[in-house]
Design brief:
- It is a single chain.
- By secondary structure, the protein is α/β, with parallel strands linked by helices.
- The chain folds into two domains: about 1-65, Alpha-Beta Plaits (2-Layer Sandwich), CATH 3.30.70.1140; about 85-330, Alpha-Beta Barrel (TIM Barrel).
- It is built from 13 helices and 14 strands.
- The strands form three sheets. The protein has an eight-stranded parallel barrel with strand order 7-8-9-10-11-12-13-14, surrounded by six helices. Strands 2-3-1-4 form a four-stranded antiparallel β-sheet, covered by helices on one side.
- Helix 6 crosses helix 7.
- The protein is globular and about 65 Å long.
- It starts with a strand and ends with a helix.
- About 45% of the residues are buried.
- The structure holds phosphoenolpyruvate and manganese (II) ion.
- Phosphoenolpyruvate binds next to loops.
Length: about 350
């Protein structure tokens, strides 16, 4: 249930509502928006006591929360959230580009990559230390050694670092070294992991599971928010479909939908979403066009030698090209649209070009 306070509600009236929500057996969650305060009653309690707040002083109305995810929904928080990762704002006006290798393989590999992506305009560095690999015989990541290299690269370049956490056992050590923790697609519904990450004071990048619906993805985020961690960024990285030409099918409608349903920032991963170097530029542009707050892109000094995900990794020149392409598309799109529109709307078409 949501208690919408009136614009003129006083602090005392808000506090009264909070107390009554607690008395009714729910947890109160307060969102102070630009226009009004919203108090959500989350959990399970005596519903009629919340409905009765309709007539409490300072209350505008009481409504049910339509979606199963509550704190993640825009109904509870209409204003968009901005997640701050050591100086980088995700969800604000700028599209944030996170780039780096799939796996940290050596100090030299990561440092070269970090400098190259920074030169090209990326503002965060990625790199796997603990890798989820389909085969146990494949490279599993350098673990702690990789974390140390990531932290050094952050110190040298100033780029905040995101790396994947696969197990609750590794949370503390990763928190010591990284600025943001990634929950990989395979672990989106690892509820023990989510519950623990809800208690850490670090932002979380939550990837969508390869077979998860948008609702399941947002409910996974609800574990983090309801447990106390509101610093969550969602990441669409492609889902499993019948298509085999691409590694996964990137669901760009889900980027727009997740931003409609939730106040959390949403980024896209064109690397895992396509599995193909050649598609990264086009899909990155498309993701930004549907509203993505950022991109996470795999880059390697020599993709042919990469220990994981070489076929989808860009080399430095390729990444620079993608970054340049990102600022191009509006002109390209508007010229094409303008040509089509000129027949019916000559004035609008002139403005577009
Ligand atoms: C990765 O980012 O390298 C990764 C393993 O991603 P995902 O969990 O989306 O497969
Ligand atoms: Mn990868």
């Amino acid at each position: 249930m949501i208690v919408n306070m009136s614009e003129k509600a006083t602090e005392a009236e808000v506090n009264h509502v909070i107390d009554r929500i607690r008395e009714a057996g729910y947890q109160p969650h307060v969102t102070r928006g630009t226009e009004r305060t919203i108090v959500a009653a989350v959990g399970s309690g005596r519903r009629h006591e919340i409905e009765a707040l309709q007539v409490a002083p300072g209350v505008d109305n009481v409504v049910a929360i339509a979606q199963p995810f509550k704190l993640v929904s825009r109904q509870v928080k209409p204003d968009r959230s901005i997640v701050h990762v050591n100086g980088v704002a995700i969800g604000g006006p700028d599209v944030v580009v996170i780039a780096g290798p799939c796996s940290v393989e050596s100090r030299e590999q990561l440092f070269q990559t970090a400098h190259a992506i920074k030169r090209a305009g990326a503002t965060m560095l990625r790199g796997g230390a603990y890798k989820p690999r389909t085969s146990p015989y494949d490279f599993q990541g350098l673990g702690l050694e990789a974390l140390k290299i990531l932290r050094e690269a952050r110190e040298e370049t100033g780029l905040p670092v995101v790396t994947e956490v696969m197990s609750t056992e590794d949370i503390d050590i990763i928190c010591e070294y990284a600025d943001m923790l990634q929950v990989g697609a395979r672990n989106m519904q690892n509820f023990a992991l989510l519950r623990r990450l809800a208690t850490v004071n670090k932002p979380v990048l939550l990837k969508r599971g390869p077979s998860a619906t948008v609702k399941e993805w947002l409910l996974a985020a609800e574990y983090l928010l309801s447990g106390g961690n509101r610093q969550v960024v969602l990441c669409e990285r492609g889902i499993k479909t019948f298509e085999t030409e691409t590694r996964n099918t990137i669901d760009l409608a889900a980027v727009a939908l997740a931003r409609d349903l939730s106040h959390l920032p949403v980024i896209a991963d064109p690397s895992h979403g396509t599995g193909k170097q050649s598609l990264i530029a086009a899909v990155s542009r498309a993701a930004v066009a549907v509203g993505a707050d950022g991109l996470i892109i795999e880059v390697h000094p020599c993709p042919e030698r990469a220990l994981s995900d070489g076929p989808q990794s860009l080399d430095f020149a390729g990444f620079e090209k993608v970054m340049r392409a990102l600022v191009e598309p509006l002109r390209t799109i508007s010229t094409r649209v303008a040509t089509a529109a000129s027949a019916v709307q000559p004035e609008a078409a002139r403005k577009l070009t």
